[in-house]
Structures are given as structure tokens and as C-alpha cells.
Amino acid sequence: MDSEAAAKLIDDAAEVLKNNDRGGWTVPASELYPHQWLWDSCFIAIGLRHLDIERSKTEIRSLLRGQWDNGMLPHIVFNNQTDYARDRNNERGDLNPFAPTGVSTSGITQPPMVAEAVLRIGQLLKSPERRTWYKEVLPAIIRYHEWLYADRDPHKEGLVLLLHPYESGLDNSPPWISELRKHSMPLWVSSGERLHLDGIINRFRRDVKRKTLPPGQRITNAEALAFWSVMRRMQRKAYNTEAILSRSVFAVEDLAFNSIFIRANDCLEQIAKAAGQALPDSLLENIGKSQNAIENLWDENTGFYYNRSFVSHRLIEEPTVASLLPLYSGAISRSRAAMLVKRLKRPDEFALKWPVPSVPRSSSYFDPYKYWQGPSWVNTNWLIAEGLERYGFDLEAKELRVSTTRMVAKSGFYEYFNPLDAKPAGAANFSWTAALIIDLLKS
Ligand code: GLC
After folding, report:
1. Are 36 and 27 in contact (CB under 8 A)?
2. Is the predicted pLDDT of residue 71 greater than 90, yes or no?
3. Residue 196: inside a domain, yes or no?
4. Is 357's pLDDT higher than 90?
5. Looking at ligand 1, which atom is closest to the CA of residue 379?
6. What is the tens place of the pLDDT at every residue in 139-163?
7. Domain membership of residue 283 as a residue range
8. Which pLDDT belongs to residue 14?
9. Domain-located, residue 235
10. pLDDT at 57 over 60
11. Confidence of residue 184 (pLDDT cuts 50, 70, 90)
């Protein structure tokens, strides 16, 4: 791409972010996602830092407003306008005694990208300001990582568990859907599926109602209802992990989340060092354990990483884009990294015309338009490119970054893309697509 085209793309991306700015925080997309989401805001801050570093810090600060007293960072900090009372009442984070007062949040978390975002903002600051910035946010990140270990790693395995598909950020990814169908599909939902009650249900869904998005690009109604029902069960236990686990076998050691967490620990150590502060010994011990634990998600027979059921300890052998994310963790061996790169290059799996499908073409789930079951997403491309570079696959990283940028230049700042022809899908003017393109072009 020539420099003029790149400058135009950056200007257009900046415009998307400006329009999605709600005064100190950014919505992922204006109509569809009117609140602040955890990992979205981290990706947004990573892009915004190139345009307005103070504003990128504010994005993180507003995210941290939602932090619970026990350290959890919620996946949503709700828009407090009266129009959104229904969304707030659906999630009811406030059922838990640790939820903050004065700000309404969800009761679950999302991939811990915050340490990466904080580190990268700091990298663009000069020395004294960088230290001040790191010192300001370090306590919140330490508390969050400590909470992940204390609350979500009850058996001290070095891997954290998730209780709801939304926590993975890859909502309807095949391993989650297969676990959901196995363990958490209420009878009334599967009957609804058989009775084809779609018309009625669609009226209540923001994504498919008013025909904003074709139903084929979103999760099915049965899945949406099952997600809702898992959330209701969590609410009945006031989002108390121990109480939820005592009554449910639906808990997953998610590969994408744990890969991101391992990398986040690395970022946290760098932040602490630059701030001149030591991390608590107990946290360091847990961090060390996680480094090796990712290998427990490796399957020798198929030569791939997978999600694992927390309860049965069985791998859920559904390959997805998450199977490539141990590259981003930086915690796997060079030889395993090379094996992942081979998979990335296979035309029957991940090497489609446009990068990188959210499930391999060979998967029975593959559908080029269906949310996390086929389309390409800019954030996972960004994570994979980082991982490739980390393992010295510089050429592959560069190619991935270039083709991701070309895909967006061709089709617009959409939420996701058909990996066969780059046709856009999902929400238009999607914030993390815009922000990460800025980062790709400016880094
Ligand atoms: C969807 C995505 C999730 C994202 C959210 C807001 O739920 O699956 O990853 O954070 O939308 O963009």
C-alpha cells in the first residue's frame, strides 16, 4: 500500500473511533454494542495511543472504573443512560457483594488484554511519564491477575477456567458450542429449536431485530437462549464461582484466554520492572506455573492445542483459531511453534484467500459468514502476527499484517470478514478493526 493510501486509511479509522467515542470510553459499534467491553477497549487503546496518547490512557482508566473489590475486571461496563436499563438488568453484576457501586457492570470477565495495552501505551511515553503511567495502573492489573488465579484456578493448575462462552470473547466458537450442547442445553431450549420459534425470539435480539444483521451471520437462537440460561444460573449463585462450580460441569479451560493471560503476565512483569516495583511472590509462583501448563492443552495425536473441560480434564478436540494462539503466549517450544505455522499455511485449514478463518476450512463447523465459526477477525490476526514475530517468523508476520490491512482497505472497518472473498460481515464501523489497522500501519 502506498503512503497516500495508508494515510487515508488511518484518517478513516480515526473517524470511526471518533464517532464511537462516548466521552472517555469507546463503544465497539454504535447500535449493536452500546457499552464498554473489556478486550475491545484494550485493542482500541492500542490503536488510539498513536493518535492521542492521553485519550488512550483514559480508555483504560474508564475500563478500570468497573473493577470489582475482589479484583475482577468485568467484561462490560454499562452505559448509564436510561435507554439501556434493560441491558443492565439482564446482567445484574450487582448481585455480587464485590461489585462496585456507582457503576453498573456485568458479572463475568473477558480475555485479559489490559496489561498488553498498558505496556504498549507506556512504550510511546518518555521515561518519567512512562513510569508514572505504569505506577498508576499497576495495582489494578496485579489485583486482576491475582483474582484470576485465586478465583478461576481453584486446583492450582496454572490454567484459569471460564464459566460462560462470553468470557472467551469467541462466543460461539465450536468447542464452546459443543460443551454447551453436551452439558448446558436446557430441554426448553432444544424444544424451541425443534418448534422453530425463531420469529418470536428474533424480536428480542438487538443483533437480528430491525434486520440490522442477517441471522446467518450471528449465533443461532438456540445458542443465544442457552447462553442466557447459563447466565441466569450464574446469577442465581450471585456470580460466586465456588457456588457455581459446585452445581455445574460447564467450565472450560479456554485456550485463547489462557494464551492471552500468559502473555499478559509477561507484560505485567515488564510493567512492574519499569515501575521499579516487585510483584508479590505468590503471584510470581503462579505465573511460573502457567508457563508450563499450556502444554497440558496439547494433543499429541492430532498435533494441535485445544480447549479443555475443567471437570473431566478431557481436551475438546475442535480446532479453531485459538489453536494458533499459543504462539502469542510465547510459552511454547520453538518446534511446536513451527508445527503451528505449518497448520497456518495449509490451504485446507487456515491458508484461505483472506486471513485467518476463525475455524479451519476442514472443520464441520466452517461457515464463512457465521461469527466465530469461520469468518476472519482483525484482532485474532493481530495476535497471531505478534506471536509469529515472537518466534522469529518475521516474513509470515509481515505477510499476515499486510493481507489483514488489504482486507480492511478493500471491504471497510467491519466486525469480521468472509475469508474466501473478504466480503464484510457483522457490524460496520467496528472500533477494534479501526484501532488495530492504525496500529498495524503505524508500528
Ligand atoms: C461479541 C464478541 C466479543 C466482543 C463483543 C463486543 O460478543 O464475540 O468478542 O468483545 O462482541 O464487540
Report:
1. yes
2. yes
3. no
4. yes
5. 9
6. 999 999 999 999 999 999 999 999 9
7. 3-168+249-442
8. 98
9. no
10. yes
11. confident
318 catalytic? Reply is: no
Q: Which of 94, 116, 171, 349 is catalytic?
A: 171
The pLDDT confidence band at residue 337, using thresholds 50, 70 and 90, is very high
Q: Could you tell which of 26, 162, 171, 320 is best to mutate to test the pocket of ligand 1, judged by most ligand atoms within 8 Å of the CB?
A: 171
- Our count of domains for the chain comes to 1
Residue 26 lies in a domain: yes
**Ligand 1 pocket at CB < 6 A:** 28, 33, 37, 39-40, 169, 171
pLDDT over 90, % of the chain: 88
Q: Which residue of 27, 77, 166 sits with most ligand 1 atoms within 8 Å of its CB, as the best mutation to test the pocket?
A: 166
Using pLDDT thresholds of 50, 70 and 90, give the confidence band for residue 209: low
Angle between helices 378-390 and 431-442 (to 10 degrees): 30
Phi, psi of 393 (to 5 degrees): -90, 65
Q: What's 427's domain CATH number? A: 1.50.10.10
Q: Residue of the nearest CA to atom 9 in ligand 1?
A: 169
Q: Which atom of ligand 1 is nearest to the CA of 40?
A: 10
In a domain, 190, yes or no: no
Q: Is 300 a catalytic residue?
A: no
pLDDT greater than 90 at residue 200: no
Please compute the mean of the pLDDT values over residues 313-340 and round it to a whole number: 98
Atom 4, ligand 1: residue with shortest CA distance: 169
